[in-house]
């Protein structure tokens, strides 16, 4: 099983320029530790995410690293011009020398869609149209697409991706509808949320993948050619007590960021996505399996148990979040690298 790294780059108590410098240092350390890929989120109008233009941030990561793969998880397709995003994807693929992984989604937050004047009840249709358009543009010398929301005729594709036929597509989902949709298309997949919820979504993805033609862009480094991942917030320290001391305020800071918009904004029409789990305490997150904090032995036992239950082949470790300092995150990463990752590698 391989290990990736996930990040929102949420706001903390340091200047943003300092925070960006810290994240780039952490990315370099993660690459040295053997992390497979850095995935970064996209959000808007919230302290949860200070890189709402992930392509700019990933361009910096691409030049600070040389081996680790990288990409958005996810680009919020309803908020983009497909043509402009095709061009950005091609640029990033070349800037990274073919290390780009392209996560796509419609947006989990109805508030953020609303900020951009995108009706949340139309976002799935817009997303699917945009995805079809982007897929066509990445694999053609000329873009022709006629959909309900986007139309292009004979647009020259001067930029082509380095990876052929295109960089791998990923989908991150907290519901079985999206999980099945991505499985049908042979995309790589990442689940999040409580273990029971993630288990159902992974099952929906696997079932749909099995009915289709397999991975669209196979990855031989993953069993079956498809990455099936799980996101978990992880803090490793010399003792359980020390790890929990760091993890508790970090998770609760992060939880406040996650819940910020639902506490400060309102929608004229209720959206079922607001029912997604948003616990507020470290203890809630730990009980649901979403946060793992402890000594290397404790962390490994939790990962081994969840990996066995869910049948994943990819762990998206979230190692630098909330109120954590760079030193705390680097120490956690080093213990994770030296004492946990070798065991994960044998799964």
Architecture overview:
With 347 residues, the protein is an alpha/beta fold. The chain has 11 helices and 12 strands. It has helices spanning 16-33, 54-64, 82-95, 110-115, 123-138, 176-184, 195-211, 240-264, 282-287, 296-310, 326-345; strands at 2-7, 37-40, 69-72, 75-76, 102-105, 142-146, 151-156, 169-173, 188-191, 228-236, 291-294, 314-318. The strands form 2 sheets. Strands 1, 2, 3, 4, 5, 8, 9, 10, 11 and 12 form a 10-stranded parallel beta sheet that branches. A two-stranded antiparallel ribbon has the order 6-7. Helix 7 links the parallel strand 9 and strand 10. Helix 2 runs parallel beside helix 3 (82-95), helix 3 (82-95) crosses helix 5 (123-138) and helix 6 (176-184) packs parallel to helix 7 (195-211). The protein is globular, with a radius of gyration of 19 Å. The mean pLDDT is 95.
Q: How many E-type strands?
A: 12
* Number of helices, counting only DSSP H or I runs of 4 residues or more: 11
- Helix/sheet category: alpha/beta
Q: Whole-number radius of gyration?
A: 19 Å
Distance between the termini: 5 Å
Q: Which segments are poorly predicted (pLDDT under 50) over 5 or more consecutive residues?
A: none
The mean pLDDT is: 95
Helix residue percentage: 40-55%
Which keywords apply here?
347 residues; alpha/beta; ten-stranded parallel β-sheet; 45% helix
